[in-house]
Amino acid sequence: MVGVRAALFRALRMTACVIVLLALAFLRPTAVVHASPSAAREASRPLLPPSIAQPAGSSSYRRMIAAFRRSVGAPPVSILAVLDARSRAAATCIVRTGQDTDLHAPRKSLACAHAVSWALAARGAGESLMATDAVAGSARVEVMRFAESPFHSLALADPTQTQMGFGASSGSSPSADTRFAVAIDVTGGHYADRDATSRLMAWPASGWRINGSTSAGQEWPDPVTACGLSVAGPAMWFARPGSSSRLVVTGLRLTTADGHRVATSWCRLSSTTRAFTDPQASSTARGWLSWMNAVVVLPSAQLDGTYVLSAHVDGHLVHRHFTAVPSSP
Which of 42, 73, 158, 312 could disulfide-link 251, Cβ–Cβ 3.0 to 4.6 Å? Predict the structure, then answer.
């Protein structure tokens, strides 16, 4: 990879859960170009990702990352020790300093330097998805938080990524909200021109349990605020990276397990969306949506139960079965 383009994600707090999601200095490759698959390659792939079991609560980060990527149609990645070290250093630095925003302009760099290599931590922060909390969370909880935040989710699902790393840290911290931190290095490894494993990528994963609501402030760029809401149902997305035409999603419909249609309005966010008032948020969101050729959809209704999401995606009628549970207070 000979060139990269930086896109800065900032931190915002999920006040109800005392959680901060971070994605500092995302790097998205520009030298790696999605080549449109040939007709033969396209026909050889299934339309949708496979249905796989959601990992158990005791699953490791390695297993959760692998399962998430497979469930949305992304090819596997190798986990590298060098990327693990960068992620772990970034997480340790956040715990030791209490910084939950920009590690590249540290207020307490000396405290971090005593704990880990500052250069290693800063690089890890610049390449990683990050989350912090007052208490340590399991690998399943943390990876699901990334998966349920659509711009973090798209970054974690990029099929051109071939390598990742992860690291977590916990301990005393100047801030009660940063006693635990986890980082997943998604941009520090190698990239390759790779197809998704299915013609359409999609979230939620078929058959998985997800939170039934998405709150404003859970993620930056903030999809809920962009939709003019303070809370919405779960954020879902479809993607077709490498396609020569922009993805089209129509006919959205939610039905319950017994076939009743859910009364809801829908918000769609795509690469042409101009709903973000912050120019940087708009550029970052549209950059990921364009790179992944994705459409994010949010129902206005909060969900609790088993559902089927139906939609016409590039002319194909698709269904995603999932269970939504009330979000933790």
Answer: 312
Taking the C-alpha atoms of residue 65 and residue 87, their distance in angstroms, rounded to an integer, is: 14
Burial of 329 (C-beta count, 10 Å sphere; 0-12/13-18/19+): exposed
Give whole-number Cα distances, 156 to 65, 71, 122, 143, 289, in Å: 8, 12, 20, 10, 13
What does DSSP say about strands 163-170 and 78-79: parallel, antiparallel, or unpaired?
parallel
What are the pLDDT digits (tens) for 169-213?
A: 999 998 898 899 999 999 999 999 999 999 999 999 999 999 999
Which amino acid is residue 161, in one-letter code?
Q
| CA–CA dist 283, 26 (Å, integer) | 12
Inter-residue contact 54 to 207 (CB < 8 Å): yes
Burial class for 12, CB neighbours closer than 10 Å (0-12, 13-18, 19+): buried
Between CA 177 and CA 18 the distance in angstroms is 6
- pLDDT for 236-278, tens place per residue? 999 999 999 999 999 999 999 999 999 999 999 999 988 888 8
- State how far the alpha carbon of 70 is from the alpha carbons of 29, 192, 205, 238, in Å: 21, 17, 9, 15
Q: Which residues pair with 232 in a beta bridge?
A: 214
Q: Give ∠ CA 277-219-237 in degrees, rounded to 5.
A: 90
Q: Evaluate whether 25 touches 187 at the Cβ level (below 8 Å).
A: no
